[in-house]
Every structure is written in structure tokens, then in C-alpha cells.
Amino acid sequence: MRENGSVSPESAPEEFFGTTAAQQGVWYGQLVDPDSPKYNVGECFEIRGDLDEALFAAAVDRACELCDSLNLEFVTEGDTLLQRVVREPGARRLRIVDVSGAADPAAEVERYLATDMATPDTLHRPRHHMALLRAGAGLSYWYVRFHHIAVDGLGGAVFTRVVADLYGRAVRGEDLAEVTLPAAPLRDLVADETAHRESGRHEADRAYWTAKFADRAPEDTGGDDGHSGRTLIRRRTDLPVTAGDAPAASGLRLHNGASLSAEVFEDLRGLAAAHRTTWSAVLVAAVAAYTARVTGTREVTVGLASNGRHGGLRHIVGMTSNILPLRLTPTATMSVGELVREAAAEMRGALRHRRFSREQLARELNTGDDPSRLTGIVVNIMGYDYDRDFAGIPAPSRVLSVGPVDDLSLFVSERAEGKGPLIGFDARPDLYHPEDVRLHEQAVVSFVAALAAADPGLPLRDLPLVDESTAPALRAQGRGTALPERAVARTLPEAFRDQARRTPDAPAVVDGAHTLSYRQLDRAADDLASALTGWGIGAEDGVGVLLGRSAAVPAATLATVAAGAAYVPMDAAWPAERLGRVAESARVRALIADERTAREPWVREAAAQLPLLVVDASGRVLDGAPERPGALPRISRPDRLAYVMFTSGSTGLPKGVGVTHADVLALAADSAWTDGVSDAVLMHSAYVFDASTFELWVPLLNGGRVVVAPGGVLEARAVRETVERHGVTALFLTTALFNVMAEADPAVFAGLRLVAAGGEAATPDLMQRVAAASPRTRVLHVYGPTETTTFATRHPVTADTPGVPPIGRPLDGMGLYVLDGTLDLVPPGVVGELYVSGHGVARGYQGRAALTATRFTADPYGPPGSRMYRTGDLVRWTAAGDIEYVGRADGQVKLRGFRIEPAETEHALLTDPEVRGACVVVREDTPGDPRLVAYVVPAPGARADTAALARRVGRTLPAYMVPSAFVVLDTLPLNPNGKVDRRALPAPRTATGTGRAPRTAYEEVLAGLFADVLGVSAVGVDDSFFALGGHSLLATRLTGRIRAALGVELALATLFDHPTVASLAAALDTAGAARPVLVPQTRPEVLPLSFAQQRLWFLNRSEAPGDTYNVPLVLELDGPLDAGALRGALADVAVRHESLRTVFAEHDGVPRQRITDADAAASLVPLTVEHPPADGDTDAWEAETVRRLSTAPFDLSRDPAVRAHLLRHGPARHVLVLVLHHIVADGWSLAPLCRDLSAAYLARTEGTGTPDWAPLRVQYADYTLWQ
Asked: 3-state class of 780 per DSSP?
């Protein structure tokens, strides 16, 4: 503060002087984000008593007048930021706001605070904001909001203390105009920092910090939370909060921390005293230990907020804040005392060198222009009492914000003696949800209490993350609804026969036109079971079942368990070596096959050693029956083995999961299958995939029917047909197949009571779109390893479920635990490994006791003798009580529904004599098309023949485990730890066909569609779709594109039989069109919408304006660009494609297409050009601009459903943003759109006008009329 005598209200503005490094950082940060309120520093005091408002206003005005930092003006001269003090004589700085008349004055106060805190201040001359909110008799709130360029946390505390002192003086009758205060010119603060920079102390500071980080390369700094592990708090997966969304943004920025109890605070002080340090060092140690435990890292860099000035200048209101990086290594074996000593030593060194800014250190270490990468979580310990006393009236303080947050900050605010400090998080609202932050706030308070009370010699790994008071509720949260005891007290044959007796004539299996009643299925199963027992098959013997999709599958399944044996699903297409391993591991003593699979070489060879029963499509024995059928045993133990299902194994050996009768009964008894869901379940999954357990047993044990799907990969058309013809009520799909169908038509599942999807990570918003399109269909996100009998969790997805759906809650009778490495519970919000207990947990791995012991362990939280399964999946509890999937703890992945250990494929590669090194990963270089890619290093002298290598691997592995792409490398890239650096593995080069060119119109269309779907530039007519990287999911997409383009009913099997352009074109020519050929149509006066457009138009009208159905295309353009030619090219493309100039008008409530004349094309799709700010982060501007443009809604009734924007970074760098509405384009439309736009632009720049392209044979309007 200035001396009273030195202040002259009439004095002219002072000369400009320099600024602190902290002020410069705020200046440039605000310039980059000029509309952001993140640099607001706010505080609110609750004043209960008779406050004299006039005297209080005088105290505030006088304090502002005396304070240099609240009267600043900023200018730049070249690259230098300068400031000066400009006072306003007689200015009234305090606003009096009366909210006492509001219905809820307290809520009105909160709204006022939130709104103003979300308001950015003027940077060149900050006005700050101070208000006295009158809430009622004897109740007021004093609110202060500073701009951080002028005031830091310490400065704010100094200012409010001065106001309290001046108000007390005024109450005592002193004339505030005559009051003198200690001198506190801002110039002194700036001069002191300048002198320090020019002194030897600055060099000593630099040497200290650069030595601290000498071993950390630029690319090693930063990352999520400043470490290489998981993020501390879950990042939000929905769209960021917009800057204008004040309530949402301020919800995280307002400090609503929990209190550390006085007892915990005393424990902190006691532990600190025992180690001759401060309680703040103990708190930093606790935060580091918590971060390391939660993120799984060995080194944590905690940022310590500091005021960046020495004690002699603490009375000056100003801005000198700094973040000091503290490198700590809280390993699991380190004791509490050792960590406290390490934290204390780090803090002592850092505080001695506090005046070297984090920004300066970032420049020294060459980490770019983002100093926040140097630290993870920031700890802001405000070691001064913020509460105030106004002439005897106590005024507790609530800190609203202490300035910007790089990512995540934990604040601790000390309060008056006897009160524990406040502790909580500040977090960026665009990165984190408030409920996720609150979960960690509670967990941190609990962990700090545990560490403070712990014996100093206790290892950090023994500190509990969950205290004893909250553990019971967390365990209860993971328990599913109890199953009736009788539900799992029987065996599968008993349960099925009970159902057959109740409904003997009800349909049990429907296979096309053929139907088996419960009585008929029971009889067929018993006959087949008698044949098995006649061959001596008995208790828990393995019966290999190799059948195509037919009614024989449920018959053979029932027969096997009725004989007391365990069925072993096998695929005759597996390599002989794998079939042999499976048969040996599962102790297979007999085989059941159909006429086709019985002819396979391995089956014929095995039949020389084992009984082979050949059955027809209904399960009746055709060949191989014993001389006399055997008696059926009485099976009464539910713990009897029912089946053995094989999954991938990391050692190169497949793992056989043994599942009991009780496990299957528990699955079938779950309440999710009630209300008619199990009436008719579609059986389409491969029998060797554990989803078949759901498709067979859930309907048969609940009186429903198994509906056998047509052969081949399930298609959308088959789904509709089975619903219409057979009344299918429930369907399970792998996530990948669900996505393919849902992307093409979210309403494809209408008519089902339930559609369940799982097996891989869900896609954000796709399930929600299905739920919106089919409101009467329940959409279920399911999860479960084979070891937990198909499903362990389920979550109903609704249209308003945000982001990626969680995997939900346990099935009835099951239990879920989220545990750390020592099998201790972790609190909600914290990532841990998922363990599953209760009914449904399999017996173990057949014949592999050691492996079983590592994955199936004793349940420490269950009754004696109970077990749990370690899934290897990383998850967290959400605030809503659901489980959210995070990732794998090991390398296991799921691809198109199959669980794969890449290590098993690597093992197969490494056994090849021509391979020296191998690494197998899943890549998704083309969105929506994940695939297995192998990186191989050839053995010395070996020739890298990847086709031959793929064939050899295919002899030992099933097809889904054979990589679809091979990349040959000289060496595998390694990270500093000596492990394969998977991020450095290059993307595989896309195969491109080079064969004969198309000769007919059909071939030309098909070649273009092949290339589009495969993502290659060209395809020859003799190139195989599958040889170029195609697989079943891409084949499904391709058949849909061919149907739409050529108007033919193309079965997926036809593509498998004719995988080249030439052969498929011939097949389509001879087969003829199942529907009329798509040709130009006579245009009626009123042009209707297609079926898909009708749905999108309805959703556009019924939903709030949004971007759900926006299809953005962002193209980075390097090199000079002719904007005029681009405008012309856009017009050319709009002329060529009628859909780009179509408006969807409404007449008498009925939508219609209105196609604008081609002459107006140029005005319909204008090219808007935008430029980045002159002084700012252009990358951030680009990201925000693209987001803004991509999410702006369309008015389909007035405007065309396409927009074009050009972001001009400079003469040779541009970004083109095209946004289309889904009503005129899907994702596959983008490739031809880009090709046409490129051709049109090239023609314009070469001066030839419009491209010499052939007119389109049909337009979308023709397709609408044809449909």
C-alpha cells in the first residue's frame, strides 16, 4: 500500500514500468483465449451482523484507491509488456445489490456469483468487480473478483485484510481520508524481480532446476497428469462445455471442498513435527502417494503453487505466483516416513529457488511453449487464514477461484485455529465432470487421514484407499440382486425337462420352415444322449461338437449334458493342430458332427480313434450309433461340468474354460430376460463363441424358442426378416457388428424387445441413436469374459445416456469388486482391476491347475470357500454406481467379438524359423475397421515372404487370430525401458490392386465400391476383396453399398463365393435383379423423402437443435491455394449432385424434397474464409473453430444440408471444413465427394472450366422414387 500522503486524487497517471514474469504469462494466456474467464480470481465473505453499508463502501473505495494493482493499465511496446497506475478520483468501486426480495435469496446469490465469475474482464485495463449482496436482515455477502494479471492469492488476502482494517477504523470514527498505511508500491515488486534476474542468485536458481530435470528428455516431460500412467481423474467423453455455459463451467471452479477434521489436521501436524517439517510437506507427500497409487506410476511430479517473492514483499498486492515442480518417487515399498522426508527435502530446495519460473524452466528444457507439461497435479496450499472480522462481525470466506487451472489442481485452504482446512479440487470443466471430481475429493480426504494417522514405518502399499466406514457400502454396491436358491439348485437336464413337461407342444427350435416342439427336442436329445452313453461316455467326459448352424446344435447341446458329459464347441475350419490341442485339453471322448463337417480331414482322422456320431439338421443320428443305446444317468449335482469353451492363451496354448450347470442356470435366471425378452432368441453366433450360451439356454430354460438364423454373417435384412417371420424378441451382437448395422440404419432393431451388444469397447452415442430410433426396444450394453458365463454386467442404454455407455451393474447373483494390486477395494472414480464373484464364475481352466490358481482366487469379501475371477480389465465405479470400462491390464484384446491374446499370435510367429522377432497389435488406421497387424523381423538370411508366413500361421491358429496385415522391419523399435515402443510402429501400407482395369459398367461400379470400402486407391477386376484386407464386417458394408448402387439383392455368401470384381459382376449379371433396376425416374410435382430421410427429418424436427447427425469432413491442405477456384469447384460439385442443393420443405405437415436449380449452386454453398487471431495459439484456434463449425445445427427446411469453410493459416497452409447433414450423406459418401471436389478444383486451376466427367446415371431423388 502507498503512504497516504503520496496519493493525490488529482495526480496525473504515472509513467509506464515493467511487469513481473507471472503477469506476462497471464497477459499472453488471456490473449490466446480472450473470451475465457479462467483468469478470474474470486472470493466471497458471509457477513452475519449489522454491517454499516456506507462505511463498508467507503472502506472498499479507500482500499482500492490506495492499491496500485487495482488501478492498472497495460500496453505493449514491441515484445515488451508495460503497465502504469491510473487512478480514478472519487470512483465508487462497491456495488450494492439487494437480493432479499428474491424467492430464494441464497440461490440468487449463487447465481450472481456464478454469472460474474464466468464473465471475462478487460485485459488492457481490468475493472475487477466488488459487490455487497444484501440477502436479508443481518445477512450480507461481500463478493470480490480480481483479474489474475493484477492479483494473486496472496495479494487478494492482503487486500481483504486492508478492507477489514479500514472498516474497523471507520466504525471507530476515524476519517479514512487521513488514514496512513505502510508503503506498498507495485514498482518495488517489479524492481525486486528485475534485480533478481540480473543477479547471481538467478543463475543459481537456473542451475538448480536444470540439474533437477537433466535426466528428463523433452518428450518425457508431461503427458497425462505429468506421468506415464493412467489419468488421475476420468476425462469426460462427451462434448466440451462451451465458454458461454456459465453454470456448468463454474460448477467445477467454485470451491466446495470438504473439510479435513481438526483431528486429522492435528495428525498431519504431529507427523510433520516428528520429521521436523511442516504439515504442508506431509500433505504433498500424501497427494504424491495417492497419485502414484491411482495412476500406477513410480514417479510423480507434483506442482507446488508458490507466491514467488521473498517475505519482505508479502504485504504488496500484486501478481508473482509460480508453480514449483517437485519430483517424488512414492514406490509401494517406501515407508510413510521416508516419503515425508523426501517431500520435505524437495520442498526446501524448491522454495529456496522459487523465483525461477516454471515458464523459464520449460524454455531451458526445450519442452515447447506449454510449461504445464512439467508437472502433473498442482497442490495449492493457501497457508493463511482467509476469514475476516469486520469490526467484531465474523465473516467466513469461501474462495471461488484462485486463477487458471492447467489440468487439475488440489487446493488446501487453512482456516482459523480449531478449524480443519478446506481441501478440494479445481479442474478444467472441458476435461472433467463435476461428479468425477467430487469422487476423488472424497477419496483424497480419506487417504490423507489414513496417511496422517499411520505409523511412519508403514509401507505405502498398506495404506487403505477406502476407509472402514465406507467399505461396506462399496461392497454392497457391487452385489447383484440375489437369485432364488431353487434357480441354481438343479441341473440343466432337470430344468429343461421341467419346462418340456409344462409346455410340451410349444415351439422350442425354429429353423426356417422346420419347427421342433419341446417334446420333440427332448426326445431327439434323449436319443442322442443314449447313443453317447452307449459308447461309454459318462461323467464330465468331453464331447466335441462340430456342427453348422441348425436345429442340431440345441439338440446336441442338450444331449451331451443329459449324458452327464460336457460339450466342447469346436470349429472344423480350425487348423488341425488347434483341433488336436483342444480335444486333448478337454478330454474329448466322442464327436458329434453333421454330414458336411464329418467329411473334414481332421474329423475323419479323429474318427479312427473316437466314436463319431453323424446327425441330421434336427439332431437325429444318421451314422455312428452304438450297437445298443445306453441308459441315461441321473444328474443331480449343479456343480457338474456343462461345457468347455476355448479362448486364446498368451503361452500359445488355447485355454479351455470349464463352466458348470449352476453357472448356466444363473445366466438364464437373470431378471433382464423377463417381460417376453426370452420368447424368441436369435441363434446366429458361432457355436465356439460364448454368446451361444445365451442364445441357446436363455430361451430353452424360460419357455421360449431358439430361432436359427440363416447361414453366414448376420445382415440387417436377416434381422428384419426373422423379426417379421418368426417374432424374434432378443438378439445379441458383438459391438463391431452392432456398429455396422446401427451406422447404416439405427432403426434396424425396431420390433425386438431387446438388443444386447458387447465384447469390445462401445462407440460413443451409437447405442443411444439406436435407442432413440427404436424407443420400444431395450438396448443393453453387456460385458463378460467367457470365465463368467457369457455376461457379468449389463447396462440399459437410453437415448439420453451421455458419451460412452458404462458396462453397468452385476447380473443377478453375481458380485463385482474393483481392487488394487493388493486386492484392496479402491474408491469410486479410481481405476482398479475388475474381479467377478458369485454365480456364473466358471470352475477354471481344464487341465491347467496352475493357470486356474492365478485367475480364480479366493474371495476375501465373500463367504468362506467362495471364489472370484480376475478379469484383467481395468474399470472404475462411476458416481451413479455403474462400472465403466477403461482398458486391459494386460495385452489381451477383443476383435470382432473374439478375445485374442496378441501374445499367442506372436508366439506362433516366433516359432517360425524365418522369424527372429515379432510384435502383434490391433490398429484402427481406418475408422471403424480395427485389424490385427503383425510386425516381423526376419531371421538372418531369411526372405520376408509375408503371404507364405500368413499361410503357415494359419495352420496353427484360427482365422480370426491370423494378422490381416504384415509389416517387415529390420528391428523392432524400443523405448528407453527396452520394451517394444508400440507407438513407433508404422502403419501398414495399404495393399492396392494392380490387375486388369474394369471392362463393363458393372465392373466399373463394383471396382469403385471395392476401393471405397477397402480404403485403397484402385482395385483390379481380378483382385480378391479379402486378399486386399477385406473381412466379414467390411464385406457387410460392401454388400449394402452394392445393393444401394446397383439395385440388386446381394447375399453376403455371394461375395464370399465371388470375391473379385470380375466374378462378382458375372454373378450379378446372371442372377438378375431381385428388385427393379435403379434408373432415372419421372419426377412428380411433389418429391417425397426416402425412408431413411423421413426418419432423419422427423428426428431433426422433434429433437432440440444439435449436431447428432452432422457429418464433418476436415481436410488439411498444404501448398498455395486458389480460393476462387475452390469456390467454383464447390459450385461444380453442387451442380453435379442434386442432394447438395436440396432443401426439405414442409407442406401441410408432410416433408418434401425441393431441389434448387443448378444455376444457383454458387450461392447455395458459399465458401466462408476465416483467419486466426494475430497474436495467439493458432492450433487452439483451429481446434475450437473446427468444433464450432462441425457442431452448428442445420435448418433443413430453409438451407441446403452442406456448409463449407476455409481456415487460412497462411499462404501455404489451409484447412477445409465441409459439414453435411446425414440426411444427404453418410460416411461412405465422403470419398466420392472428395474425388469430385478434387477433380473440379484441378479443372478450375488449369483453366479448363468444369471437369470432363460423365453425368451421373441417377441422382438420389431417383433412388427415393425407385424405393
From this structure: strand
> Looking at the 3D structure of the chain, how many domains does it have?
5
Instruction: Decide the pairing of beta strands 378-382 and 408-413.
Output: parallel
Query: What gap in Å lies between CA 158 and CA 144, rounded to an integer?
Result: 13
Q: Count CB atoms within 10 A of the CB of residue 829.
A: 23
Q: What is the CATH number of the domain that holds 1015?
A: 1.10.1200.10
Counting other chains too, the contacts that 217-221 makes at CB distance below 8 Å and 24 or more residues apart are: 218/365, 218/366, 218/367, 218/368, 221/365, 221/367, 221/373, 221/374
Same domain, 947 and 1033: no
Task: Count CA atoms within 13 Å of residue 638 on its CB side.
Answer: 15
Q: In this structure, are residues 1225 and 1235 in contact, taking their beta carbons and an 8 Å threshold?
A: no
Q: What is the 3-state secondary structure (H, E, C) of 5-73?
A: HHCCCCCCCCCCECCCHHHHHHHHHHHHCCCCCCCEEEEEEEEECCCCHHHHHHHHHHHHHHCHHHCEE
Residue 1208's domain spans which residues?
A: 1087-1266
SS3 of 313, please? helix
Do the beta carbons of residue 640 and residue 538 sit within 8 Å? no
Q: How far apart are alpha carbons 936 and 944 in whole angstroms?
A: 9
Sign of CA dihedral 890, 894, 895, 900: positive
pTM of the model: 0.71
- Do residues 568 and 608 share a domain? yes
Residue 8 pLDDT exceeds 70: no
Q: Which helix (H) or strand (E) holds 324?
A: strand 322-328
Domain for residue 793, yes or no? no
Tell me, yes or no, whether 253 lies in a domain: no
- Give the Cα-Cα-Cα angle 446, 449, 453 (nearest 5 degrees): 145
Q: Which residues are CB-neighbours of 111 under 8 A, at least 6 positions away?
A: none
Cα–Cα distance for residue pair 1213/1120, rounded to 1 Å: 7
47 bridge partner residues: 140
Convert the pLDDT of each residue in 700-748 to its tens digit: 999 999 999 998 888 888 899 999 999 999 999 988 788 888 888 888 9
Please identify, among 194, 221, 243, the residue that sits at the C-terminal boundary of a domain. Answer: 194
408 close to 378: Cβ distance less than 8 angstroms: yes
